[in-house]
Specification:
This protein is α/β, with parallel strands linked by helices and 312 residues long. It has two domains: 2-114, Alpha-Beta Plaits, CATH 3.30.70; 122-311, Vaccinia Virus protein VP39 (Rossmann fold). It has ten helices and 14 strands. The chain has helices at residues 15-24, 35-41, 53-59, 76-87, 108-113, 160-172, 188-195, 208-220, 251-264, 281-290, and strands at residues 2-10, 29-33, 63-70, 100-107, 122-123, 128-132, 144-148, 178-182, 200-205, 227-231, 242-248, 265-277, 293-301, 304-311. It has a seven-stranded mixed beta sheet with strand order 10-9-8-11-12-14-13, sandwiched between helices. A four-stranded antiparallel beta sheet has the order 2-3-1-4. Strand 9 (200-205), helix 8 and strand 10 (227-231) form a beta-alpha-beta unit. It is globular.
Length: 312
Amino acid sequence: MNYIEISVITTTEATEAVSYILEDEGASGVAIEDPNDFILMNKNKTDWDYVESELIEAMGTDVRVKGYFPETTYSDDLIKSVQSRVDLLTDFGLDKGKAEISSKTIKEEDWSNAWKRYFKPFKAGEKVVIKPTWENYDIQEDDIIVEIDPGMAFGTGNHETTLMCIKLLERYVKKGDKVYDVGCGSGILGIAAAKLGADNVLCVDLDGVACKVASENVEVNKEIDKIEVRNCNLLDAASAKADLIVANIIADVIISFTTQTLEFLRHDGIFISSGIILDRRDEVVNELKKHQFNILEIVQMGEWCAIAAKRD
């Protein structure tokens, strides 16, 4: 089966919103090509040894968010709908950038594999290393390896929002913890939590494709005894209180979701939220404080921030 790739040229600020639009319109997968993420991820000079120079040049400077739609579901009305929703992002205070939209037909084997040449092993935190399943990596002392094949979920872990979550998980996950990973994507954060010592992890996502990919990655990492993956909305599948909840989503969802965290987070439990554009930081902080959370720290990378908060 062939796919139609709809590509939106936008800004780093608007990537999460554009991704949501494409997913909401029915995309089977979404890929983000942001040169800013790539440069940030490879800020250490030695990191560039993993990357071919022509790949760096090929990325250019534009941020592209690409959605992949089955050819059978594509129509001109779909393009019009995506364009109109992207154009409305300015009404929400987001810089939509060029907002140029294009489409082309992609063979399934091409779109499933061509992007893999950009995904190399990298250190996401002090200890956690994200390694594609098809790449070799010389393990160093104290490395915690998370092997990932994002498949159609396209969660490679190199976005600032994910990197900040991993750094915070390294600080706050304790041995024996129960952890909920909300909006798990390809399962990176849940798997990292298990490898950092959590005994029980529930990964949830509204996207069935993401859940399938996350389950496969859990198996690859040999963490099936610790991790359960469920296809549901937010914490609808939760049944007990967690020691830590991590949610890498967007500011609006975090704000609306804060009340539910109280139901499923122990007193003194940690809530790590990410996917928050800097302009929305104060809104999220105020909502957390309003719902019995003390702010432990706020970390920032690029135009994004993540918040670690403790429940009273």
